[in-house]
Specification:
The complex is a heterodimer. By secondary structure, chain A is an alpha+beta fold. Chain A has 14 helices and 14 strands. In chain A, the strands form four sheets. Chain A has a five-stranded antiparallel β-sheet with strand order 2-12-1-14-13. The longest helix of chain A is centred in the last third of the chain and has 34 residues, at 339-372. Chain A is elongated. In chain B, strands 6-7-8-3-9-10 form a six-stranded mixed β-sheet, sandwiched between helices. Chain B has a four-stranded antiparallel β-sheet with strand order 2-1-4-5, with helices on one face. Chain B is globular and about 45 Å long. The relative contact order of chain B is 0.20. Classes of the chains: A alpha+beta, B alpha/beta. Chain A binds chain B through residues 1, 3-4, 7-8, 11-12, 327-328, 330-341, 425, 427-429, 432, 435, and chain B through 48-49, 52, 55, 57-58, 77-78, 81-82, 84-86, 90, 92, 94, 96-98, 100-102, 105, 109-110, 112-114, 118, 141, 157, 161.
């Protein structure tokens, strides 16, 4: 049957020539529209590497010196730290809150701040993103971060006192530094005379939703009421943040709406909560600020328009072409073809044509892609490692090509199946009279 | 002799929104195995409708069709297709060859639906093409052949699957007298040499006289 199908295709090349050109153009257009859209949707929907759904951030500010609410008696370093922990306890008392952890100012996931610092082994140097955490405050479990290797225990990391040179790294960073994930207990090359010891490997985390998985490490720091910052201490005088993990079943956005007043009532010394926001909202804000939501909206609209046109155009063309073959179907039927066999034969012809034109379209687009690259992730910054399929040219190319092939095949199959079924079930006598 | 085609009380009614046309009325007909029967009558008298019903290309409004002892009315589309493929061969007035296929591929069609292996298909097709004198034209397309040659291809296609019955609907209607005679010669040879049953619709009295029996129709009724 396949030989018969190929012969039929070849012998109908005059008619199929136009279809071939049309389908090649569609394949190329599909690349232009579908590739960036798929990458964008993938980026947005990839797991952030931690449990973002029930996280709420309280931004804590400090009353400025000189303003009438400023309390000079609460400005010494001991009182500042007391107030800092008092505010944490007050936040933890909310019945809907499961746990809390302090965050250095601007250092939260989905937050504004982001800094990198190199880590080296004898052979490799990587520039991962560095985040600070306060040891013993349940930082990892509050975020819903998970362990990547059997030697790492999240509960242990949460309670571990951590010395200043102990860090926790992500799996991707372990792979980059040591070429395997078994990094616990290893040390990095001394940096400014300090050798860093790796005490835990966690699953990859995306510091901001538009970014792909990147390399990260978490360095301990202790809160201080002094204004000095030496890399191991976190001055909190001017403010900090508190991350809340809500209890199971509590909706973070509803929690924010219902607890704005509660948040406003949280005050300790010169500290007060200036803002309450869910991490989901922060994620949306970042995507909006980076222009991702908008470009995705435009991309989706274009893709929808394109897909509708693809379906109408391809389905319509194949519908008309197939409809004209009713006499042929009548002949086939007269000589023993069942209706389903006729439909299958015609669909096979269409699918083979689709495959050939799709391959041609892909080869043509590949010339452009090899030169200009495929659609990139939003945060395709050179120093950020981008280890998803998006950055592997051939994997990326194959995935998008497969999606396009599936879409084209569906359109062609529908365009042929509807009339083929009809003509295959028409009375033979009527079909043969039509000529 | 065995009855190979049996029609009992066949009526065929065509309905449109405005009118009903009775194409066949109470047709009772038996054709024996190995017979060569002509069906004659004026245009529109129901000859082709009768042939379509015998060939299971159309279903009667009422009545029973038995081909080679098998009652056709209860068969599914798939069973009908298989039955046609094994038992019946068709020759049409306007040939009904598939223009996008060459001669040999057209002839192979019935075998294709029997899932005959490609090599065997080719052998059988070559054999029947030799018989109709077209072995040298296997790679030609229908558009490159004369009407007589097209009809010979159609006959080759009709007999390649070795059916017991050949139904020919005005097989010489589109041909000049010389080509018509050639086609008739082939049909007679299929009847006398291979003992195939042939039912032929024709307007040509001379051709009809050479067959075993003439059945005449008028206004959907069998009159002889």
């Amino acid at each position: 049957m396949i030989r018969f199908v190929f012969k039929n295709l070849w012998n109908r090349r005059a008619v199929n020539g136009w279809l071939t050109v049309e389908l090649i153009i569609i394949a190329i257009l599909a690349w232009i529209i579908i590739d960036p859209l798929v990458v964008s949707v993938y980026d947005r929907n990839s797991s952030p590497g931690y449990d973002i759904d029930r996280l709420v951030l309280l931004s804590v500010s400090a009353t400025s010196e000189g303003t009438y609410r400023y309390n000079p008696a609460a400005s010494d370093s001991v009182t500042v730290i007391d107030d800092y922990f008092r505010l944490l306890s007050m936040a933890a008392e909310n019945p809907q809150v499961q746990s809390v952890t302090p965050i250095a100012d601007g250092q939260s996931l989905e937050g504004e701040g982001m800094m990198t610092q190199s880590l080296s082994t004898e052979t490799d140097t990587v520039f991962p993103i560095k985040m600070f955490f306060v040891p013993g405050t349940g930082f990892f479990s509050t975020h819903g971060i998970t362990a990547s290797d059997p030697k790492t225990d999240i509960a242990d990391l949460d309670s571990r006192p951590f010395s200043d040179n102990e860090i926790v790294i992500t799996r991707e960073l372990a792979r980059r530094l040591f070429h395997d994930e078994n990094a616990v207990g290893r040390v990095t090359v001394p940096h400014w005379g300090v050798e860093t010891v790796l005490v835990g490997v966690i699953d990859d985390v995306r510091p901001k939703s538009p970014m792909n998985v990147t390399t990260m490490y978490f360095r301990p720091c202790r809160p201080t009421g002094d204004r000095e910052f030496d890399g191991t201490k976190m001055p909190v005088n001017d403010g900090f943040s508190i991350m809340l993990r809500l209890k199971q079943g509590v909706d973070s956005e509803k929690f924010v709406t219902d607890n704005t007043e509660w948040a406003n009532s949280l005050k300790a010394g010169n500290f007060y909560v200036s803002k309450i926001s869910s991490l989901l909202q922060n994620k949306r804000d970042i995507e909006e600020a980076w222009g991702i939501s908008n470009s995705e909206r435009i991309g989706s609209a274009l893709a929808t328009f394109f897909l509708i046109n693809l379906f109408l155009g391809v389905v319509g063309t194949f519908y008309l072409q197939t409809r004209r073959r009713s006499t042929e179907a009548g002949i086939m039927k007269a000589f023993g073809a069942s209706p389903s066999r006729i439909a299958v034969t015609m669909i096979l012809e269409g699918l083979i044509l689709t495959f050939v034109t799709w391959a041609a379209g892909c080869v043509i687009f590949m010339q452009y892609a090899l030169k200009e690259g495929l659609a990139a992730s939003h945060a395709n910054v050179s120093y950020l490692l981008n280890e998803s399929w998006v950055s592997h040219f051939w994997v990326h190319f194959s995935i998008i090509a497969a999606i396009i092939l599936i879409l084209m095949s569906i359109a062609v199959a529908v365009g042929i199946y509807l009339p083929a079924r009809k003509i295959a079930n028409t009375d033979i006598a009527y079909s043969l009279k039509e000529e | 002799m065995n009855t190979i085609i049996s029609l009992t009380g066949i009526n065929k009614l065509y309905r449109t929104k405005e009118i009903e046309t009775l194409a066949l009325e109470n047709v009772n007909l038996s054709i024996n195995e190995g017979e060569f029967v002509s069906v004659m009558g004026p245009s529109g008298c129901g000859k082709s409708t009768l042939l379509n019903i015998i060939g299971l290309l159309d279903r009667p409004t009422s009545g029973t069709v038995k081909i080679d002892g098998v009652e056709a009315s209860a068969m599914s589309d798939r069973s009908l297709a298989r039955f046609r493929n094994n038992e019946l061969g068709f020759v049409f007035q306007n040939f009904h060859l598939i223009n996008s296929l060459n001669v040999i591929d057209n002839v192979e069609i019935p075998l294709l639906y029997r899932n005959t292996p490609a090599k065997r298909r080719r052998e059988l097709a070559m054999k029947v093409l030799e018989r109709v004198g077209l072995a040298h034209r296997i790679n030609h397309y229908p558009s490159q052949l004369s009407g007589g040659q097209c009809q010979r291809v159609a006959i080759a296609r009709a007999i390649v699957g070795n059916p017991k019955i050949i139904l020919a609907d005005e097989p010489t209607g589109n041909l000049d007298s010389k080509m018509g005679a050639e086609i008739m010669e082939i049909l007679h040879s299929l009847n006398t040499d291979d003992h195939r049953t042939i039912v032929m619709v024709t307007h040509n009295e001379n051709q009809a006289k050479l067959t075993n029996r003439i059945i005449r129709f008028f206004d959907g009724r069998q009159v002889q």
